[in-house]
């Protein structure tokens, strides 16, 4: 199988200006003796084309927190897919903004093509890597939950943007006591109804990752876990996602690399 490293070797290999890396690149790529015929190059091009491993570049601000890009990151990490996690400072935004489809991030570049809208990006990746639900109905349910999380993200924007700290505190308290408390009651009922430990069907979907990202990675970090005290099923879901080996590996790495996000 050709991975990202061997793909870049191939680019070196095919470059008309590179003579020396040709042989070593080929050896690393195929693990066999290099040959210089056109035929070999054609085989390699076919291998690369058929390897079906897109080059992903995810672009988002380096602040605040994980924001609207984290769900895509979680899906890619859970799926074990390589991607470039590009986080840029706000000072670079004016130069980047015009290159995005709607003047917003996150954007995902897939082999050079650009996709915007965080839920569209997440849904695309979830479908590709088997996390979207097993049939049309499950996929619709996963969409429903992901849309709910989008509403909850939007509801957190006004307190987040508020500049007056006293007013901001009041707004956050109201947001937690009303918006979040109400939603927690409703989601607890849904989890009880599904009764599998997951939001949709009997397997992990991107809906579970979206709830984990919002309720644990965002709310719990910011406000503590008091809001989960009467929500044993949501808490169990969060703990289940948190314990997934790939998610655990990613969050441990992320928390050491980006400690300012915690
Ligand atoms: N509905 C969009 C909203 C994207 C959005 O609001 N992005 C913000 C960052 S979280 C942004 O790009 N702000 C900069 C700007 O609008 O100039 C999505 O979910 O991707």
TrEMBL record:
One Gene Ontology MF term: glutathione transferase activity
Ranges where the GST C-terminal domain occurs: 135-262
Keywords assigned: Transferase
PROSITE patterns attached to this UniProt entry: GST_CTER, GST_NTER
Tree of life domain: Eukaryota
Gene Ontology annotations of biological process type: glutathione metabolic process
Keyword Ribonucleoprotein: no
Residue intervals of the GST N-terminal domain: 56-133
Enzyme Commission (EC) number: 2.5.1.18
InterPro entries tied to this protein: Glutathione-S-Trfase_C-like, Glutathione-S-Trfase_C_sf, Glutathione_S-Trfase, Glutathione_S-Trfase_N, GST_alpha, GST_C, GST_superfamily, Thioredoxin-like_sf
Catalytic activity: RX + glutathione = an S-substituted glutathione + a halide anion + H(+)
PANTHER family per the UniProt record, alphabetical: GLUTATHIONE S-TRANSFERASE, HEMATOPOIETIC PROSTAGLANDIN D SYNTHASE
Family: Belongs to the GST superfamily. Sigma family.
Protein name in UniProt: glutathione transferase
């Amino acid at each position: 199988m050709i991975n990202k490293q061997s793909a870049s070797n191939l680019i070196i290999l095919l470059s008309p200006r590179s003579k020396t890396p040709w042989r070593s690149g080929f050896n690393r790529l195929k693990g066999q003796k290099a040959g210089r015929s056109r035929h070999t190059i054609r085989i390699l091009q076919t291998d690369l084309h058929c390897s079906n491993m897109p080059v992903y570049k995810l672009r988002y601000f380096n602040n605040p927190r994980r924001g609207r890009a984290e769900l895509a990151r979680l899906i890619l990490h859970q799926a074990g897919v390589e991607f470039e996690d590009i986080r840029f400072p706000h000072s670079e935004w004016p130069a980047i903004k015009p290159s995005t489809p709607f003047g917003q991030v996150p954007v995902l570049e897939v082999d050079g093509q650009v996709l915007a809208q965080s839920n569209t990006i997440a849904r695309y990746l979830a479908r590709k890597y088997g996390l979207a639900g097993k049939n049309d109905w499950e996929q619709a349910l996963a969409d429903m939950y992901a849309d709910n999380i989008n509403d909850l993200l939007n509801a957190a924007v006004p307190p987040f943007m508020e500049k007056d700290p006293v007013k901001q505190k009041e707004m956050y308290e109201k947001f937690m006591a009303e918006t979040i408390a109400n939603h927690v009651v409703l989601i607890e009922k849904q989890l009880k109804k599904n009764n599998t430990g997951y939001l949709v069907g009997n397997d992990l979907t991107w809906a579970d990752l979206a709830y984990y990202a919002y309720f644990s990675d965002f709310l719990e970090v910011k406000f503590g876990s008091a809001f989960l005290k009467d929500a044993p099923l949501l808490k169990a879901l969060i703990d289940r996602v948190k314990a997934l080996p790939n998610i655990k590996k990613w969050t441990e790495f992320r928390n050491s690399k980006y400690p300012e996000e915690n």
